[in-house]
User: Fold this.
Amino acid sequence: MEKFDYINQLLPFYIELLTKKQKEVMTLYYYDNYSLSEIAAQLEISRNGVYDSLKKSEELIEKYESLLHLSTNCNKRMHYYTLLQSLENKQVNDIVKELIDLED
Assistant:
């Protein structure tokens, strides 16, 4: 998996653990697809400042995942939910649907 996709996968789990400025940079870069220059102009900071904030935030998010495994465990649960749904049992599918809704 590419780093961009990996960080994008982790962000929903850990973005609230970042500072306000880090959240802004990560949101603009990963969700809104802004370039470093566009983010710098938007936030009125240097392009280098954006780059540093982005790298620090990515490192933090990867560290959080290595400690907490929230994304990894969610992916495992989703895999098992899919297996359960393949049993084609209405009661099981209803329960699995409720569990998947809880994940969101």
Summary: The chain has a mean pLDDT of 94. The longest helix spans residues 47-68.
